[in-house]
Write a structure and sequence with these properties.
13 helices, 3-stranded antiparallel sheet, 28 strands
Length: 603
Amino acid sequence: MAGLIEDYALLGDLQTAALVGRDGSIDWLCFPHFDSPACFAALLGTEDNGHWRLAPAAGGTCTRRGYRGDTLVLETVWETPEGSVRVVDCMPPRDEAPDVVRVVEGISGRVPMHGELRLRFDYGRVVPWVRRVDSQVVAVAGPDSAWLSTTAPLEGRDLATHSEFTVSAGQRVPFVLTWHPSWARPPKPVDPYQAVDDTEAYWAEWMAHSTYDGGWQSEVRRSLVVLKALTFQPTGGIVAAATTSLPEQIGGPRNWDYRYCWLRDAALTLQALLGAGFKAEAGKWRDWLLRAVAGDPEDLQIMYGIDGTRRLPEFELDWLAGYEGSRPVRIGNAASEQLQLDVWGETLDGLSFAREARLSRNDEAWRLQVNLLEFLEGNWQQPDNGLWEMRGPRRDFVHSKVMAWVAFDRMIAGVEHFGLDGPVESWRRTRQEIFDEVVTKGYDAGRNTFTQAYGSAELDAALLLIPQVRFLPWGDPRVAGTVRAVQDELCEDGFVLRYRPGVGASDDGLPGDEGAFLACSFWLADALHGIGRQQEATELLERLMGLANDVGLLAEEYDPRQGRQVGNTPQAFSHLGLVNAARHLSGAHSAAPRLRQPRVPGS
C-alpha cells in the first residue's frame, strides 16, 4: 500500500519526476517525460504495479530525511540497531537519457540492506523481459528499455530484481537506473558519484540567480525549486503536478490527471518567477504560452500537453486499484475540451505582465493577442464551465466575467503604456459594459458579497481574486464584504474550499466532496493582507506553510477533518500561491511591478 501523500519527496531532471517515500521506495516515475506512462505505479495500485525500494533489510520508515540545501538531492537516513545508513537519491539534469541515481552510504556500524526493483511499464500493466548484459540488468517491453547498473549483487526472483548486501561505515554502494528507447543504442554509462555532485551543483547555481529578498526565505526557495522541477526544460511548459489521480477525497471519484500545462497558471507563474529574479524561466514560459495559443482564437484550450499538444483524451486504467481505493484512475483530461472564458483573461494578463517586465517586444505576439481579444469580444457573454472545470451545466460565472474584463483592461494598457496599436475606444466600451454587468448581476447587495454566478447565492473562492486582478481596489467595501463572506461560508478550520459541491450553482456534476484548496487558502491570506488585516494574514500564511511535509512539499488540497494532504502532488498552484503570498505579505521587491494602482470602480 502506498504511503500518505505527504510521505513522498520529489526527484526530477526537468523532463520527468519521481516520488520516493519515507520507506525508501520510489512508487511513481514516468519515463521519459512527465506525461509518459509510468514504470513505477505503486502509488496508484500495489507494489506489483512497479516500485523500487532501497532501504535497510529490517524495513520501516526512515529516521530523518531532507534535501541538500536548495537542491533536489535527497538524503534519507535510517538509524538501526546495527548502525546508521544514508541513501542519496537524485535525477541528474538530463544529458542523453533520464537516469535515477541512488547511492547507499554507510555512516556507522554494518547495516544489512535490501533492494527490490520491480519494473512495470505502461502504468504498472506490462511485465518486461529481464536479462543480464555484461554487468547490467536490462528490462525490455515494447518501446521501453531500462538498464540497472550497480556494484551490489543482483538476483532475479518473483518477477523482480533483488539485491542483498551489507554496508559498513565509510562504504558507498551505487545504483543507476537509465531509460532509453528499446530500439536505440544504450547511452553511455553514468558515473553515479559525479552525477550526484553535478546535480547538487546545478541546483545551487540555479538558485544563486534568485533575487527574492522577502520573508519566509526557506519556504519560498523550496517552492521555487519545485516550480523549476515541474518545468519541462525543452519547451518551458510547467505542469500542474507530477502525478495523476491522487484523490481530492480519499476513496472518492474526483481523481484527475494534472501532468499538463494550464493557461490559468500563466500570470501567477510569471509573477512568482519574475518576482524572484528568474527572468529566463519566465521568458521560456511566456514563449511556451505564445506557441500553445497560436492559431484560431476559437480553438483556445484551458490546458495543453508539455509540448503544446492539444488532444488530451481522457480514459481510465481499470487494472489499477487507485490510491487507497480511490477510483477511477484517469489518464488525459476531458476538461481540455471545456469552454472556460477566464483563460482568455489569464492568458492576456500573463502576456501583459511579460510586457511590463520587458521580457521582449514581439509584434507578432501582439497581433495574436488582438485576435484573442476579438474572439472574446463576441463571446464574453456566453455561460461557461468556470475555472474549476465544472462538469455540470454551463453558467454565468462571476470569475469568468471578471477575467474577461481583465483581458480588455490589459490590452488597453498595451495601447496606453506601450504604444501598441488597437481599437482602444471599442475596447474601453466593452470593458465598461462587462464591469457594469458584473457589479449588477454578480453582486448580492443584501449580503455585501459577490457570488459564484449570476443569480446564485453560492460563493466561490475565486472571488478573492477580484482586487488582485484590479477589477476593484482593495479599499472598496464590496471587497472586504466578499472576504468576510468567504471566511464565513467557505472555510473549514480556517482553510478555504473552492466551493461547496452539489449546492446550487456549485453543482459540479460529480458525487462526493473534496478538501480545502491550498491555493485558495493562500489567496485568502493575500486578501486579508490587502484589506489591512495583517496579523490574520500572517497567521494564516504560517499555518499554510506548516501543512507542507518534512521536505517542504504541498499537494493540491488539505483535508482538515483527516489532517492530511490530498490531491495531486507536488502542486504548482499551491507553491505559486505560497511564493506570491509571501512576496506580498513581506513587501518583497518585484522585478515586474504593475504599472498602475487600482483604478476607481468602472473607470
